[in-house]
Amino acid sequence: MTSRRSLLTGLGAAALVAGLGGVAQAQPRMPAALVRRRLNLRHLHTGEVVDIVYHQNGRYLPEALAKMNRFLRDHRDGSVHPIEVEVLDFLHDLTVELGITDRVGIVCGYRSPRSNALLRANSSGVAKRSLHLQGMAIDIRVPGKRVKTVAEAAMDLRLGGVGRYTRSNFVHIDCGRFRTWGA
Which cofactors are named for this entry (predicted)? Predict the structure, then answer.
């Protein structure tokens, strides 16, 4: 027959093994779907600023997404196009990963076919079928962070394509397949 002392000793040992031995337990993580997603951005060409929660309580907020579509419009001709939520989530996760509290600079969001053709005529680094044309890409500049640091953090997330443009001081992120380029 098991003595009371043996039983209590066994229960105490089991509690220690389970991590309940008086040590504070970590709080369970909130499900990713319930995390509030917020972006704090400055468009470097228009000077506009947006600080917006676009996802909350497990759902995307249509009004906020409409504001993001307008904010990330083609700054050359003003055309607006829906921005894919996956690229917004990529940007959000990247800011969290880097611990960014300052505004992130937006170099380019959506790009119209006309603007893309204009840029391609003047630069070899612009893709003919750029994901900017589909609202699936954003070029960013992060104050106080080197391009290499931002690009490496984005690559670690593996949420889409990552281009490093050190000379122009920006990082391209997109929600296409994972791939990397640039120096």
Answer: Zn(2+)
